[in-house]
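Late entry, evening session. Most of the bench is empty. Finally got around to the prediction I had been postponing all week. Sequence below, unchanged from the version circulated by S.P.
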Amino acid sequence: MPASSRFAIAVHVLTLMAEVGDEPVKSDFVASSVNTNPVVIRRILCSLQRASLVTSQTGATGGSRLARAANEITLLEVYRAVEEGRLLSLHRKRPNPRCPVGMSIEGVLNCILSEAEAAFEGVLSEITVNAVLRALRPRSGKREGKRNDAASFSNIKRHQQRAGRCAHGRGRIQR
C-alpha cells in the first residue's frame, strides 16, 4: 500500500506561502512548485483552511496565504490537518485467537505503535513551518529575520543529525 504524500505536499505549500509572505498565492502557482495538478493543491488547501492554517479568497485577485505567522504553525498541526486516522495500524483481519502469537499480538503491538506515534508527534510538535523555510535557505553571513522559532530550528538540526540525513549537504540546518 503506498504511503500518503498529503503531509509532504502540505508542508511544501505552507513553506512556499511563508517564503512569499503576505502575497496571496494561486493554486496554479503552488502546483507548479509542487509539480502536481492544481486540483490536488486545492484539496490540500481546503484541509488547511478547515484547520485555520490558511485563509483563501476566490476571484481574480484571490489566492491563499498563511492564517498565522510561520513560526506559530507546527508540523504536527499540519499533519493533523491533512492526515486521518492512526499513523500505523494493526492487522486488517483479527489474528487467529487459537494461535499462541495471534491471541496476544494485537495488545503488544498496540503499546508499541502508541509509543511510536507519540514520538513521531513529539518531533513534529517541535518544528515550525518557519524552521523548514530556514532549512531551505543557504547559509549567509547575516541573520535573516527574527529567531522566534530557535527551538524548532535547532530541533530539526538535532533530528537530522540523529538520523544521519542530508549527507549531500542540501537541506542541512545551519546557524
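Two things to note before I forget:
The domain at 6-163 is CATH 1.10.10.10 (Arc Repressor Mutant, subunit A).
Residues 140-153, 163-175 have pLDDT under 50 and may be disordered.
Will write this up properly tomorrow.
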